[in-house]
Amino acid sequence: MSLLARMEGSARILAGVKLANVALVLIWGFAVTYVFVRVLPLDEFRAFLLLVAFGNFTVSAEFGLTSILYARLRRHWLKGADDDFRPEELGVLMLMLLALIVLGGLAVGMALAGGWLTTGMPLLFGLFFLSACLNLPGLLAKRAMAAVDANLAWEGIDCARRMATISLLMAALGGLDITLSVALQIAVALIALALALAILHRRLAMSGRHWMAWHVGGGHVRDRYLRDIALSAAFTLSEIIAYNGPYFLITLASDAARPLLLFDFFFKMSRALSMTVRALVEAALPRATRAYQAGDALRFRQIVARALAGAGVMAAGAGAGLFLFGPWLFFELFDGKAAIGMGEIALIVVGLAALAVMCVSVYLQSALGRFGHLLVRSLPFLAGSLLAVPLAAMVGGRFDDAFLAFYALALLIAAAIHAVSLRALVRSVAR
C-alpha cells in the first residue's frame, strides 16, 4: 500500500487536511466581505450581498445531483455493482451543471438589465457571479473523487487554488484592479478544475468518449436518477430557501442596512460551522459508508456518536469565540458600519448549537442516499425560516432581535427532529 493510500485511510489525517481547507474557505469568505466592503460604496455593497445570496442560491440549486452521484459511485466502488453506475453519467451531470450556470448567468443579466439589481459595475458583478458558479463543477469533482478514495488529491488541489485566489483578492487592497483580480481568480479555478478532472478520469479508467456520450449517459441518468433527483431537488430547494430566503425577506421588510448585515454575519458564522462539521463528517464517511453497507451496527453507531461529539465541540468552540471576539469581528468585518450586542451574539450561539446536530444528520444521510427522509424533516425549518421575518415585524420593538430569536427557535426545533432521525437510522442498521 502506498503512502498516499495509507494517509487516505487515516481518519485523523483526512480530517486534518479537510479542516485546513475549511480554514482557507473561511478566510476566503471573510476576505470577500473585508475587501468588497472597502472597495465598494455602501449602496453597491448592499447590492453585492444580494448577488452573493443569488450566487449561493445558484450553487445550491444543483439539487443534490452531486450527492446522488456520491451515493451511487461510492456503492459501486465498495461493492462493484456494475448496474449501479456508468462512467457516462459523469459527462451528463457535468453538462447539466454547466447548463445551470448558464441559466443563472442569464438570470443575473436580466436582473442587471431590468434594474432589479442596481449597480454601476455590471462587469465586476458578472465575473464574480461566474467565479462563484465554478464551484458547481468543482463540487462534482470533489464528490466523485471522494467516492473513489481520492480525497487527499482533491484537498491538495483545492488548498492550492484557495491560497492563490485569496492572494489575488487581497491584492485588490494593494492596488490591483478588483475586476482584474476576479478575472484572474476565474483562471486559477479553471486550471484547478481541469487538474482534478484529469485525476478522476485516470482513477476511473475513463476515455474521452465517456465524457461526451451524452445519449448513453442521459438514458442511464433518466432511468436511475429521476426518483432521487426529484426528492433531492425538493430537499435542496427547501434548504436553499430556508438558509438564503431571509436575505430577500429582510430587504423587503426593512430599508435599513443593519438587519441585513446582522443576518449576513449569522449566515457567515453558520456557514463556517457547517463547513467545519462537513469536514469532520466527510473524514468519517469512508468508514461510515463501509459499516452501513456491511450492516456493522456497532461500528456505525460509534462513528455517528463521534461525529455528533465532534460537531458539539466545534459548536462550543465557535460559541466561545463569538462571545470573546464577536463584537470586534462584526465591527471590523463591516468596516464599522454597524455594531452587534451580546444578546444578539447569544442568539447566534444557540442557533449554531442546533445547526451542528442538523449538519451531522444531513451530511451523513445524504451520503447514504436518504433524500426522501431528509425532505420531510426539512420542512419545519423551512416554515420557521420564512416566518421569522414577518413574525418579527409583527412583534414590534427591535426587529433585529426578534428576527434572530425566531430564527434560532426554528433551528432548535429542526435540530430536535434531526436528532430523532439519526437515532432511528442507527437502530435501522442494527436490525
UniProtKB/TrEMBL annotation:
Assigned keywords, A-Z: Membrane, Transmembrane, Transmembrane helix
Transmembrane segments: 12-36, 48-71, 92-117, 123-141, 186-204, 248-267, 303-325, 345-364, 376-396, 402-426
Protein name per the record: Polysaccharide biosynthesis protein
Organism: Sphingobium fontiphilum
